Amino acid sequence: MSVATRVETTDPGSAASDVRPPVLRRRSSTRELKRFSANALWGVVSIIVFVCSVFPVYWMLNTSFKPNSDVISPTPQWWPENFTLRNYITVLFEPARPDRANFPSAFVMSLAVTGLTLLICLVFAFVGAVAVSRFKFRGRRQYIIALLIIQMIPGEALMFTIFGMVDSWRLLNTVIGLTIVYLAGVLPFTIWMLRGFVAGVPADLEEAAMIDGCTRTQAFWKVTFPLLAPGLISTGVFAFIQAWNEFLMALIIMQSPGSYTLPIWLRAFQQATQSTNWAAIMAGSTLLALPVVIFFLFVQGRMTGGLVAGAVKG
């Protein structure tokens, strides 16, 4: 008796639901059933998207650790039964030939082009974003519209024009030539993206700092610039991925085997192995993707932390 009394008195919600009319209870249960069904449906869709996204990466890694005889076998192996690192040794230590580069030289070339593109892109994008967000000048609206129009033009439509320009400048097969081409393709989007971050920082913060005694330059560097760190990191990630993985422009600009970047080296490596050593090709693809993963893992924590800090301070 005493236990039943305590349950009834300590659970007023259940007691109230018991006195509701049957129609209300049916409506409530119907809403809960619809909510549960919607959550279950979205959960299934999320799992399907996750599997479709991760499975190619898993299969690339799985294939890179198998002997080539197991790769071409009609029976798929979901786990490398004959685990081997021979494919990575083949990719890393294969000697260079006159008609194609080896992996280390292509890695150094990709690193030089990507690093230079990233550095120059961040500097110019930052200055351009501040100019279109903080200052009003004649032609500002047309400049912003031009940034949008440039992004709509496919790079394939300009490749012959770009090749002619780079050739006339005698910059074929050079890091500077490919860096200029990458900057032309990446810079409009990075300016547009960074412009949103600059516009999101209230100008009142700078004015408050100037009232406290800072000059305009000091207010910008001490107040606004730290809040733009998430934007700089986000645009840096975009520029790094675009420059590291780009294939078409590198193919027409870097024609000499000694100037191949990693995507071009992987294509030449596939042709040299006559498309039969798929295990080595997957090992090369893994090594090609590894720097992007490492770079993203290095900056993603700071990017998230900067976004949270900026939201709190803003």
Automatic annotation (TrEMBL):
It holds the Pfam family BPD_transp_1. It comes from the Bacteria. It is found in: Cell membrane. GO terms for biological process: transmembrane transport. The keyword Transmembrane applies. It comes from Paramicrobacterium agarici. PROSITE patterns: ABC_TM1. This is Carbohydrate ABC transporter membrane protein 2 (CUT1 family). Keywords: Cell membrane, Membrane, Transmembrane, Transmembrane helix, Transport. Residues 1-21 are annotated as: Disordered. It is a multi-pass membrane protein. The lineage of its organism: Bacteria, Bacillati, Actinomycetota, Actinomycetes, Micrococcales. The keyword RNA-binding does not apply.
